[in-house]
Amino acid sequence: MLISSCNFFGREEVKFFPTRYFLIEPQTLLESIEQNKANLFTPVDDMPPDNNQHITVNWEQSDYTKILTTLFTTVLQDDINDWRPDGISLSLMCGQYNQGFQGGYFTFFKNLKESQDEIRMVRIVNITAWDKTISVADKEYRPKLVNWSSLDLAKTKITADDALKIAERTGGRDTRLAVENNCNINVAFISGSPRYEGWWVRYVPFDANGQPSGILLEFDIDPMTGKPGKK
After folding, report:
1. N or C terminus of the chain: which is more exposed, having fewer CB within 10 Å?
2. How many domains does the chain have?
3. Does 50 have pLDDT greater than 90?
């Protein structure tokens, strides 16, 4: 599918590629990666319905990096180092504040030269441990008219795990306990964000129907010093 993306510099045509879906076994995935086992990502035609198993994993940011690297190498036949990270977003329920991130959303891009055009390829990977799925969505911007910035996570001293701990002791704990942990926590770092300069941690409450509703508390945390600031 093709659509047009307009900006100050002109028009970029965006081509969307079919989303790919994979099933995983979250409880054994990291161990299987360490043992170099094969067939860890099972391709399926469509995203399966919620299996209601609500599996819990104890994954940190570094664990998601291992999973992504293995996925790129063994299934996508690609080198993750050829892609530049544009955004990372990790999430968990408030009651799981010390049990690891249960889902991750990652955006990558790379610039290519093809014939007379410069193009930007974008890849979005969504890992949801609780329903044992991974999705991979690619799109192409042609011609590339805007230079995107990227994250340098290797030089970032504060990880998503650190950012969550900082938020917890700076008011996050009291906030989630005030709603009896009826909320979700999202920890994200978006390159070139006009609003956030580093990690942002957001506590989002659920309404009577169990749907996200509003924002309880929000932090902007310096990725080098860990200094928090409330939004």
Report:
1. N
2. 1
3. no
